[in-house]
Amino acid sequence: MTDRMELKAYGKINLGLDVIRKREDGYHEVKMVMQTVSLYDKIVMERTDKPGLYVETNLPYVPNGKENLAYRAAQKLIDEFGIRDGLDIKIRKMIPVAAGMAGGSTDAAAVLVGMNRMFRLGLSKRELMKRGVPLGADVPYCIMRGTALAEGIGEKLTRLSPAPVCHIVLVKPQISVSTKEVYGQLRADALKPEQHPDIDGMCRAIEEQDLDGVIGRLGNVLETVTAISHPEITTIKRLLMEHGAEGALMSGSGPTVFGIYKDREKAAEACRFLKEECGPRLTRQVFLTGFFNNRKLDGQREKCHEK
Ligand code: ATP
After folding, report:
1. Could you report the per-residue pLDDT of 190-204, keeping only the tens digit for each?
2. What is the pTM of this model?
3. Is the CB of 139 within 6 Å of ligand 1?
């Protein structure tokens, strides 16, 4: 058995996010294009002689122990498989927190994948994804990674071809938002038809490797909530566009905003501008990154849910 493992837990952005309706059980039915980015949290997992599960992070405002989603993921497999060894998990956060980038979900996903290997549990990817659902709607996607269409409450996943290569500038403003509150304030039934992004068109553009088609269809209905209460989101989008972005959008429930660039030099210059000339007044974290895809999966349309 492996005693120590280093894992990369990658963040995501939404190239498109539509809310179809609010279900009777209170959950929102969504249709989203998900994309993994190269920005990751580093997780070190160690099997120890000291019994018990320990989870800690490097940030004072991210919970340690039971409140951490990675803890809940580990506990789930410990209970199911009767694991008796001690487990020590240290998370070094890089992904902005409470920022629409699935930071907690991806840490939980990495722990499920890592424990499966460390304790030789023999679970398939699909079986791991199933165990991720009760932890959070984004956890199965964070196990799958890459470019995907997410439907249902986000757990019904269809793999898409890897989105065309480009450069991404990620900007986390000073504010943080709660996903629950944003969805709570959304009036899905009051959205006008033109406010819904063309998710099917975006999927087609991705399959055709048409970057302009993807950029032309960027859209997120949750901007109608978050950007109204936080005008800095619109300001950052404008600044990205003024500094060479081909398109800009808020990710998830926000407040992280990303800009898409064809030219790396322009992306690097925008990054410098937003970091040095706008932070810390407007921006808290700024990253130059890109899409993370497993190119071996090119062309495969893999369904990861039962219809
Ligand atoms: P999503 O896009 O999935 O809604 P998010 O990116 O907006 O998520 P997270 O970074 O997952 O938000 O953080 C949401 C809350 O979850 C935080 O305020 C934090 O208290 C809690 N949390 C629990 N575990 C973690 C973790 N491992 N990393 C970050 N936050 C965590």
Report:
1. 899 999 999 999 999
2. 0.94
3. no
